[in-house]
Fold this sequence. Notes:
Elements: E1 6-7, H1 12-17, E2 19-20, H2 26-32, E3 42-44, E4 47-49, E5 52-57, E6 59-60, H3 61-67, H4 80-84, E7 87-88, H5 91-101, E8 105-109, H6 119-139, E9 144-146, H7 155-167, E10 174-176, H8 191-200, E11 203-206, H9 224-227, H10 229-243, H11 246-249, E12 254-257, H12 271-277, E13 299-302, H13 308-318, E14 323-324, H14 337-342, H15 349-363
Parallel strand pairs: 1-7, 5-8, 8-9, 10-11, 11-12, 12-13, 13-14
Antiparallel strand pairs: 2-6, 3-4
Amino acid sequence: MTTRRHFLKASSIAAATGIVFCGCGLLHGAHAQQPTRQKLPVMVGGNRVKTIDVHAHCQFREAGALLGASAASLVDGRSFTDVAAVAFIEIDKRLAAMDAQAVDMEVLSINPFWYGTERDLAGQIVKLQNEKLAELCASKPDRFAAFASLTLQAPDLAVQELEIAVTKQGLKGAAIGGAVNGEAFSDSKFHPVWAKAEELGVPLFIHPTGIPELAKRLAGNGWLGNTIGYPLETTIALSHLIFEGTLDRFPKLKLIAAHGGGFLPSYADRSDHACLVSPTSCNPNIKLEKAPTEYLKQIYFDSVVFTPEAIRHLVAQVGAGQVVLGSDYPYPFQLHPVDHIFASDSLSDDQKADILGRTATRLLKLTT
């Protein structure tokens, strides 16, 4: 199926910030198939709940300009132009979409396409993006918050960027990929970044960007690089953090895993058996402080899992208090994130209110 791309003139705010929101022609057909929607203000059990979408994307035009000849280096094998130019949406159109989705606030993030660039260029891209994100959030503080970008291939620089983003720019944490140029987050070189996030008390939002080594195996119909590649990447990232003892080293580190944490929560109990079944396959020098599945209770997971049954299972595995609202907007994956939670009969009103926004409010230290 071929999707039509839309190029819309930016609003005055967009012109000032250079903001680009990515959308897709699939939105129109998908909206038409949906049932009656929740509306703002969202009420649960007679009480108003501020709905907070922690998984929403954007891009900035100026970042592409900085890439220049390096624009081919990107996420999931696509160029910056291919990713950013699917649609240029005006801020008022984004707000209208949020209203239609019954989303009070989006926490914006930018998938890291700069990990493969050299340090200075990556630093320029990150600096620009964090400034633009802060500017946008300041212009609409009741509707937008954001996760900072980090030059994670240069951990010393990433530590500085995170400090500035949180203490000076008002950003709520940082968005990171699933690995950095093939290196797992459990590598000790990244420890200073996790230590800084722990010190600042802010979460890191893990969003996969693709596994280049599997490109050939994932080729063909079904967009498998995204369909199964993205969840697999997140599963690998979280598993390394658990099994290499990183979460023991940083017990107060707050992580949010995109797409419901990938495949890990769906088959988490297998993790508890691996080293028991084959101890020679595990490192005898790493003694975890608890069973692998117990670490899932210190990780937050977004609700982009599509069905009430999937929500029920996720909550059964990790607890309702570890699940936060997500949509992946403007990509048409979970177009009705609030309705999705209301349709989950397995949840109590308190659990629904927590997932819809109360947990994110506490986690991101947002004003109510």
